[in-house]
Amino acid sequence: MIIASNFKTNHTRQSTALFVNEVNDYIKKNNISSEVFVFPTATSLDSFEVVSNFSIGAQNAYPIVTGSFTGEIGTSQLDEFGIKTILIGHSERRHILGETQNKIAKKYDFYKELGYKIIYCIGEPLEVKNKGLDQTLEYIYEQFNEIDTKYENLILAYEPVWAIGTGVTATNDDIENIHRAIKEKFPKPLLYGGSVKVENVREICQIPNVDGALIGTASWKTEDFIQILENTKDL
Q1: How many helices (H) and strands (E) does the chain have?
Q2: Is 152 among the catalytic positions?
Q3: What's this model's pTM, rounded to 2 decimal places?
Q4: Is residue 90 annotated as a catalytic residue, yes or no?
Q5: 49: domain range?
Q6: Is 15 annotated as a binding residue?
Q7: Which of 68, 81, 107, 204, CA to CA, is 20 to 30 A from 180?
Q8: Number of domains in the chain
Q9: 186 has binding-site annotation
Q10: What is the rounded distance in angstroms from the CA atom of residue 157 to the CA atom of residue 122?
Q11: Which member of 92, 99, 124, 159 is catalytic?
Q12: Which of 90, 92, 99, 124 is catalytic?
């Protein structure tokens, strides 16, 4: 099972350190075997001493070592803290910050060449979902244009845009149908994201072809994230 927390624009350097240390202690004391990821803000990245199945990743970085890209970070900043995991293609970067598929693919290639573990996000907006499964899958498959899906350090995350942060979760049938189709075409670990909560994470992670969850809001409190790990530890 793979459980990941995306902090988005939340937590400070101090609160992130407390979160990571408490989660790490829980994983150690309870022999949690799940693969666990936390993606803090760029200003909260640090050199954390964590167990081998717990990784700290970057929410975003520019495909460069150093350069003149105001507001961005590159691999020189990530290398300082030994970061080798990154989120790419998240819907908020696609739809709010305007990252095109071409830019996403270039970023993907750059970090693939460096051997990063990549959690690659895909998903559809509501207007596409309402057109039916065939149109939804066509839209999702276009998000794999120029993406090397055979890359060994690739994890996929299906996040229906209409369910992110809205409190609306896709039905189990929706999740099962989409995940089955994606896994048949791209046989990689596949996470679900979209209003995953403490109360529903176990049920979602038991759906066929769901290999874990990428969680936003419901994972920002330490006790909630630990409970999510507890609820899924035997899956």
Answers
A1: 9, 8
A2: no
A3: 0.97
A4: yes
A5: 2-232
A6: no
A7: 107
A8: 1
A9: no
A10: 6
A11: 159
A12: 90
